[in-house]
Design goal:
By secondary structure, the protein is α/β, with parallel strands linked by helices. It is built from 7 helices and 7 strands. The protein has a single domain, classed as Alpha/beta knot, CATH 3.40.1280.10. The termini are far apart.
Length: about 190
């Protein structure tokens, strides 16, 4: 039996408006972007954050913030729907997140890392920390992490593009959270 497929047009896809999206419940995940060099990577993470309906993005260090044409090009409007905040130093906010019950997880290749697929419901709410495209997460920032999550690498390269890694990890975090079927959605507040 052969199935017939037809690509849906934009107006056929049930998407929330930006206003509805801002008000809807989000998955209890925050992404921290620390010292990301490429504004295109920043925009791409915004777009993935919108698609996965996570709480917000925290931008730190020299990572560029919206509005910037390079971010807008890859975010495609997600910079308007996803809540975000900027702090010059990640330490400013990581301690506050821990005090609020967040598990801090770095996404990095490191000693004693945990496979990214082994997160449990007890690890939510979660802050997923992403670091520089070349240097990764600073050692000082890694010290704030409760866990370091690692995406396995099977080829000759030892890393993925930061926005690709973010997409893989965010979809896995949302999948793990949603499979638990525990209503842990929270009221979102700024720091």
């Amino acid at each position: 039996m052969t199935m017939s497929f037809r690509k849906l047009q934009g107006d056929e896809i049930a998407r929330p408006s930006v206003n509805d999206y801002v008000r809807m419940e989000k998955h209890p995940v925050i992404v921290m972007l620390h010292n990301i060099r490429s504004m295109y990577n920043v925009g791409s993470v915004f777009r993935t954050a919108d698609a996965t309906a996570i709480e917000r993005i925290i931008i730190t260090g020299y990572t560029a913030t919206p509005p910037r044409k390079e971010i807008d090009k890859t975010a495609l409007g997600a910079q308007e729907s996803v809540q975000w905040e900027y702090f010059s130093r990640p330490e400013e906010v990581l301690g506050k997140l821990k005090d609020q019950g967040f598990t801090i997880c770095g996404l990095e290749i490191a000693e004693n890392s945990t496979p990214y697929t082994e997160v449990g419901i007890e690890n939510f709410p979660m802050c997923l920390v992403l670091g520089n495209e070349v240097e990764g997460i600073d050692s000082e920032v890694l010290q704030f992490c409760d866990y370091v999550l690692e995406i396995p690498q099977f080829g000759t390269k030892h890393s993925l593009n930061v926005s690709v890694a973010a997409g893989i990890a965010l979809y896995e975090m949302v999948k793990i959270f949603r499979q638990q079927q525990v209503p842990v959605f929270r009221e979102i507040s700024k720091f």
